[in-house]
Amino acid sequence: MGEYTHFDADGRPTLVDVGDKSVTKRTALAEGWLYLPEEIFHTVSQGAVKKGDPLRIAELGGIMGAKRTPELIPLCHNIRLDNVKVRCDLDGEKKAVKITCEASANEVTGVEMEALTGVSAAALTFYDMCKGIDKGMVIKDIRLLSKTGGKSGEWVAEKGYGK
């Protein structure tokens, strides 16, 4: 087994040195699903959630979550995000909320964790907004769809992988 990148020679955790890496445009797109009990789907569809619109509040929660990624994920670099877009859309066929988060930065390290954290935070925000109606919501299938930039370049998820 080779050397670990996140531990020093004494076996202690260390932040990976990215000081010699080149700044490039980095993007990442992630998605996730929040499956809803019928009562929540109906209430959200009618715009009748007492707390307000959970879809828009979840989008805000996703943006805030993406910005806080290095505070939540150990040894994740603090980067300056250029843009974060979160979308939460009701899917009537699946009785679910589809969540996507797109993050970008001109940086020395990728923004995959920020996109994944944005989706996760949006899902949890929606859950918090609707848990008073029914706690049976299920968060599933959070995954990276694509990324660009950096040493490894472009990556796109295989269709259906992980489903």
What does this structure look like?
With 163 residues, the protein is an alpha+beta fold. The chain has a domain at 36-146: Alpha-Beta Plaits. Helices cover 28% and strands 28% of the residues. It has 4 helices and 5 strands; from the N terminus they run E-H-H-H-E-E-H-E-E. The protein has helices at 38-45, 54-67, 69-72, 112-130; strands at residues 24-35, 83-91, 96-107, 138-148, 155-156. The chain has a 5-stranded antiparallel beta sheet, covered by helices on one side. Helix 2 runs antiparallel to helix 4 (112-130). The longest helix has 19 residues, at 112-130. The protein is elongated, with a radius of gyration of 18 Å. The mean pLDDT is 94.
Jot down its keywords.
5-stranded antiparallel beta sheet, 163 residues, 4 helices, single chain, 28% helix, alpha+beta, 5 strands, Alpha-Beta Plaits
Detail the topology: elements first, then pairings.
Elements: E1 24-35, H1 38-45, H2 54-67, H3 69-72, E2 83-91, E3 96-107, H4 112-130, E4 138-148, E5 155-156
Antiparallel strand pairs: 1-3, 1-4, 2-3, 4-5
Helix pairs in contact: 2-4
Spans of 5+ residues with little confidence (pLDDT < 50)? none
**CA(first)-CA(last) distance:** 31 Å
Strand order of the largest sheet: 2-3-1-4-5
Tally of individual helices: 4
Sheet with the most strands?
5 strands, antiparallel
Instruction: Write the CATH homologous superfamily of the domain at 36-146.
Output: Molybdopterin cofactor biosynthesis C (MoaC) domain
The Cα radius of gyration reads 18 Å
Class by alpha and beta content: alpha+beta
User: What is the percentage of strand-forming residues?
Assistant: 25-35%
CATH class of the domain at 36-146: Alpha Beta
Domain Molybdopterin cofactor biosynthesis C (MoaC): 16-150
EC number: 4.6.1.17
Function: Catalyzes the conversion of (8S)-3',8-cyclo-7,8-dihydroguanosine 5'-triphosphate to cyclic pyranopterin monophosphate (cPMP).
Subunit structure: Homohexamer; trimer of dimers.
